[in-house]
Amino acid sequence: MLANRPRLRPRGEREPGVTRVDLAELTPEPLTYLGQVAYLELAVFERLTRVVGSAPRLADTEALSVAAGRVLAKHHGFVEEIERLGGDPIRLMGSFQPQVDAFGLIVSGATWAESLLSVHVTTGLLEDFFVALSGGLPEGVGSRAAHLLALDSGEAAIKGVLGYAIINDPRLASTLAMWGRRLVGDTLLLARSALHSSGEFVSGERYIEPVFSELIAKHTRRMDSVGLTA
Amino acid sequence: MLANRPRLRPRGEREPGVTRVDLAELTPEPLTYLGQVAYLELAVFERLTRVVGSAPRLADTEALSVAAGRVLAKHHGFVEEIERLGGDPIRLMGSFQPQVDAFGLIVSGATWAESLLSVHVTTGLLEDFFVALSGGLPEGVGSRAAHLLALDSGEAAIKGVLGYAIINDPRLASTLAMWGRRLVGDTLLLARSALHSSGEFVSGERYIEPVFSELIAKHTRRMDSVGLTA
């Protein structure tokens, strides 16, 4: 049966940690997918620039500005992908704006460190999720989307800045760990809302749980790598 | 006499509208110059991202995000230039942070349109000024600095967004025109403070006025091009 559905074929060029084929039946139309991811990256850029603007040390501002530039380049990569398919980026992104902006408010954080952890953790979860979904896109679009999502977003800089903040204020570790846990639920809700819902949705449910388990496992490693308990 | 002072030699590769040789005696040391320009571009990026974050239409957000990316690339170009000369970007930029941040507050603007016009107008003036100053830098550094400063900062996008706002709210034209006039004085003060002051400063004074006249003439054309009276 898989042989009759080429869009279910998994991509072999990288090992993203989540089997992308699993969610193929739930993958939205290419332009819908690209519009959502393009707007997500733009929103991440905006959230990150707010953190850049309130960074306590110039060295942090500088390091995070590099990360912001990388996120913006990803966003523009997805806009180009939309244009390549003849779509209207503004219209496509606009339909996701209310939901993504509301999400951005919920996960904005009360402090500079919370905001930065939120950008790191929610973006990591969502990018992993959209890599998993990309297996359901047509061959070329899917592999280019997965490639763009896998590009470096300045994670090393963010980890460095967060790690430094935590070392210099050990009380931060427990509040940030708690905050990191709170972010997971809202982020997975946003991810779930991106799934194509059709008559097949119920049969697709069984694919979602294992994928989400993998996303959470990767989240735990991400928290670990900045010295926080997930 | 000019033959004995190679740092006074004007660069021939472009016509920046201001004779760069005029300010050569007042040009600061290369690393001081680069540190100030690098921090200025970083501050412009931050100011522009605040405008991006509060843009009324997603199409404006998208257009201005491209401009923000260009400004950030300029900033990183100057950071690389500092590293090429063996300087410490954070330390060099840091010494200009208080002054440039204070300037950013003064010219921040009360509305979204004022903030955007401010970024456009003050950055244009300061970049023209630092191009004029670059003639006093050693050959390679000076031409690379002038080249970086002349790179597109998404001016077309900013002009488009501002022009659209003005057409849709004609009352804006008079308040923005007034605001544009107010920006000139503070910007030229910041520019003047960048000049190398030494025993020669008084003799250098006679070079400043014609250069500033040219900067103001270019400012007038810049205001004109968004439909505002300077």
Describe, in short, the structure shown.
Chain A has 9 helices and no strands.
- Give the termini separation of chain A: 39 Å
Quick one: CATH class of chain A?
Mainly Alpha
Share of residues in strands of chain A: under 5%
**Helical residues, percent of chain A:** over 70%
Name the biggest interface: A-B, 25 and 25 residues
CATH topology category name of chain A: Ferritin
Number of helices of chain A: 9
Query: What's the shape of chain A?
Result: globular
| Quaternary organisation | homodimer
Q: Please mark out the parts of chain A with pLDDT under 50 across 5 or more consecutive residues, or reply none.
A: 1-16
The CATH architecture name of chain A reads Up-down Bundle
Instruction: Assign the CATH superfamily of chain A.
Output: Ferritin, core subunit, four-helix bundle
Q: What's the overall average pLDDT of chain A, rounded?
A: 87
> Radius of gyration of chain A over alpha carbons?
17 Å
Instruction: Count the beta strands of chain A.
Output: 0
Order of helices and strands of chain A: HHHHHHHHH
Q: What is the SS-derived class of chain A? A: mainly alpha
Number of domains of chain A: 1
Quick tags:
homodimer; 230 residues; mainly alpha; Ferritin; 9 helices; 71% helix; globular
Description of the molecule:
The structure is a homodimer of 230-residue chains. With 230 residues, chain A is an all-alpha fold. The first copy, chain A, has one domain: Ferritin, core subunit, four-helix bundle (Ferritin). In chain A, 71% of the residues lie in helices and 0% in strands. Chain A contains 9 helices and no strands. The longest helix of chain A has 27 residues. The radius of gyration of chain A is 17 Å and the shape is globular. At the A-B interface, helix 1, helix 2 and helix 3 of A face helix 1, helix 2 and helix 3 of B.
